[in-house]
Batch of 4 targets.
Target 1
Amino acid sequence: MATLFFIIIYLTIIILLITSQWKVYTKANQPGWACLIPIYNTIILLKIVGKPWWWLLLFLIPIVNVIFIVWVANLLSKSFGKGVGFTIGLLLLPFIFYPILGFGSSQYKGLEGN
């Protein structure tokens, strides 16, 4: 019975993250369905934060990928007018902070918040 409970919680969090990311992409004038396609979703995310597609290759290099994941999360925060604290939230508690971006009053301000 406990296993079923955890499965339901897990699926709820996954659905929340997918719908939140869909809304974030839509707010940034990108197709929301792009969040469902592996690799393509990262290319679109890089487009949202104003970085070239080849940064995707940097995500494949161990240790370097951690730096670039943090950097992209920071650029995403800036693109929606948020600060470093929000970046930390996106990295540590994405199931709380992605819905804030997607369903909250945050507006896409353009590449890196310009």
Target 2
Amino acid sequence: MKFDGPEGGPLLILAHGAGAPMDSDFMNRMTALLNEQGIRIGRFEFPYMAERRTSGKKRPPDRAPRLLAHFREVLDQVESPVFIGGKSMGGRMATMLATEVPVKGVCVLGYPFHAPGKETPRIDHFADLQCPVLICQGERDPMGQRAEVEGYDLGQAVELHWLGDGNHDLAPRKASGLSAEQNWLSAAQAIGDFIRRAVSQHTTAK
């Protein structure tokens, strides 16, 4: 696992998406922005992605049980509970894991509410969440646009932070007058605020 950011900051274990590694341009930039928020980031790769790095051959992600088993192994390496999250598929796995193991909260960058071209939402497990969840979502994300997501019953645990005109990488079109950097910074600030609130509530509850 690779760690970045202040050693004394709250730890967020961040999983990559289905098609890009833990050090993709998006993951690198979001890590840097989150570090500026005082958050320490731990990144890892699922086995299929680690194999791609050594063999050079692309292969699809493993099925959820194997991904979740590896995510649990990663959490066993750090002092628990921590914050967990991820990009797209990694974020979905984090929400699923949060129904099974104690974590302080979940932070998702572009939740894949449904498969491309499909309508069935992947939210049944949200009813079993035992911690707060923040989803930073692009308004025109093809895996969950604002108009459709706002019609879902996500439950009390889930908070949404919308990024103007953002796609699945949270990036807007030039015509919107916004930039990818602005949206990414907005997402990082929202996650920073979310984590600080959760840490404050945990401290007050003690």
Target 3
Amino acid sequence: MRQKSRKPVEVRKDRRPARVSALASLPLFFPLEGRKVLLAGGTDAAAWKAELIAAAGAEVHVYAETLDPVFESLLEKGSVKGRFVHHAHSWTTGSFDGVALAIADAETDEEAEAFASLARGIGIPVNVIDNPPYCDFLFGSIVNRSPVVVGISTNGVAPILGQAIRRKIETLLPVSLQGWAELAGRVRGSVLSFLNAGLERRRFWERFSDLAFSGRSAPQELDDGFAQTLLDNARTRASGRVTLVGAGPGDAEYLTLKAVRALQSADVILFDDLVDDAVLELARREAKRLLVGKRGGRQSCRQEDINNLMVTLAHQGKHVVRLKSGDPMIFGRGGEELDRLAQEGIPATVVPGITAASAMAARLGVSLTHRDKAQSVRFVTGHSRHGDLPETVDWKGLTDPATTTVFYMGARMAGRIGERLTGEGLSPDTPAVAVSGIATPDEARWSGPLRDLEAGVAGLGLERPVLIALGTVFSRKVAESLPEDERRMLRQAG
């Protein structure tokens, strides 16, 4: 039956006035280079604050009769940027003259109150370490790629969580980012002078950002023509480009970092029905979003129309992201789109995504290959271009007991798939699983013998894509689905 086609549809985000959710505190970045900071106390905790403040270029005046050995060592080594001045006595009223910040590690609440009251009376922001009632500001966890600095705060309620978040961000930001950020400062003037505001400058900084996250080190000098090459490319690049991006099976957390960067640099996003809204939320706010739904058995955009649209937009100088569920190169028609783009001379790249079979295996806790059960795996389309069983598939080969077979887009053909395989000699007792809506809130599963596949898939419905998989690696999953008496018999037989 011939499916009706539909035209691409622009999906507009709500344009209501932006509202910021409630903030526990306002994140600010406070320049301290060359400024005076008062630090009262000689403890280990105070030493850490002193080192942090001096690293921002401050002149830290330390008031303490005695110093912890860690603090003494810090003063001997000095700071990487600022400097320390030690006053071997307790703080006094005069200690607050000309300071930008006041910090204390107070031994008692009485001392904390006196210190904070004096600072606040003069109008100096104050922090008493580990004593929130006497703090006008808090110290958070820091990821340092200076001049890129990331601050993380839980407003004092969950410091361990803040540290965990910091570790997560540390893994996302390469150490080499520091060099690229410093280079950005050196070329910024040239960018403003030689490139027009808008598209040209954005092209420059997008390419610059791609290089910054590429893992390579930033060049130390600019006389090698590096900056000039980027400037020339941004100014003369008339043609756009296309990036085929795999959105994974559903959950936005399956996206790769490279996929997120592509979404955040896109001018136009052409996305399929199955792409989750949470994925689109990660895209650049100004990007135009066009729904070009491709879905089996549903009204869909013709592939030819999608190809033409990509070409037209790219020739307009746009960065087009073709966003597909799963992986673009596994039953995603990525090859057809790349061929057309190549014919038009349009630069195209591919960002792979987690394909549905891999996500299914992970969520079921089953390896698709196993030394003792399956030494190969096959991904097979469940229907032909004409909506029937694909005759070009080696059906006899799919009966190999040492092979795991995964059928994509096979829900409507489930009964015929089972009949064909058993007709070729595959045992009707072969373990089978079917999963609908993988990695979405609506995910549903069935497992059982091949003979019951048609009924099992029918029970899942056809509202969400269904993946069918067969092979001995699923024996445990099938056994878990059996009634207890049948499981007991299997254990006894084994």
Target 4
Amino acid sequence: MNRRDFLRKTSTATVAAFGLGPGLRGAPASPSSTLRLGLIGTGDRGSALLGEILALAKPHNVQVVALCDVWRKNREAAAAKVQAHQGAAPRAFSRYQELLELAELDAVTIATPDFGHGPILVAALEAGKDVYVEKPMSLDLALANRALELARAQARVVQAGTQRRSDPRQRGAAKALAAGVLGTLSRVSVAMNFNQPRWARAYQDCLAADVDWPAFLMHLPTRPFDARLLRRWHHSKECTNGLSGLWMSHYTDAVSQLTGAPYPASAVAHGGLYVWKDGREHTDTFHALLDYPEGFLFSWAMGLGNSAGVHFTVHGTLGTLDAERWTLSPEGGANTKLEAAPVVPEPCPSHMENWLTCLRSRERPSADIQCGHQHAVATIMAAAALETGRRQVYHPATRTVQAG
């Protein structure tokens, strides 16, 4: 069976298993009706999402009616921004459960620390809300599975925050690869390089009196207030699975879009804490290899001790895609007529606009929850491989990951 037939067969099986057609059940919302949104998490990433929503609010008839953050500083800053734009202050909460109880809410964004994504996503779906959830969609596979089941059963619109899916150049490259321009693919290579202690944020202004500490901890063990943990949660193994979820999630999602391959079959990983010994628990240097059953190997590496830049290349028998410079070339190909040229972009709306549009049309967005499930599986596998030192295998029939 050739690769194109394999992709067609597995795609058909996936549709049968998860009901992954182009649209969702239910009549589209009226364009004249107001979409009422709530924001859960209004820190750096949540504030960026809020800015995008407010910029699109008028043409899409959107109103931010509620927001939630455990830190009063973030909560009040976001509320002031909304009031200045809309002329009315949103309702504000420190606990997401209270926000989700609002019957008037149509949809929510989730931009909390990583360990909150999966539990809050499931809670939002159980409350009947549509969702925009930041990556990684979940650190826990059982929660990712449950979210997928709920979204499909309730016909909810879920957009995962892997915004490269809405990059016209990446969409154009995916179209070119689907047409076979690179021939048979065998390898995808990505490396991210920074020479800085990522996420080492200041925390002196984060005071216990301003934080709903139990709300931050959620399901984590109880402990005294720790401003450093709240502001530098990226460094904690309790709060995220490290470079895999924090960064690789974007690129494993990109690989799925470019190649059409949904899930890796297996993953191995290695890494260490070589440079920034500042109390962080995660590696600052990481390398994972993921094998895909469609017939190629994905290599992903990241280091925080050298700023050599980024590379992202897809290698085929007829040439190479540079997915950072967005060029196709015959480099490395054999007996090819492929000429070096820029990728032809495939026009599309922004990631946020796509989600807002789909809230009305009830179509599946660019990074539908299946895409979120795919990147969750890949990043969970890579993180587990690093943590255990053992190869991890994905079983799609049971949606489980095991060492093997």
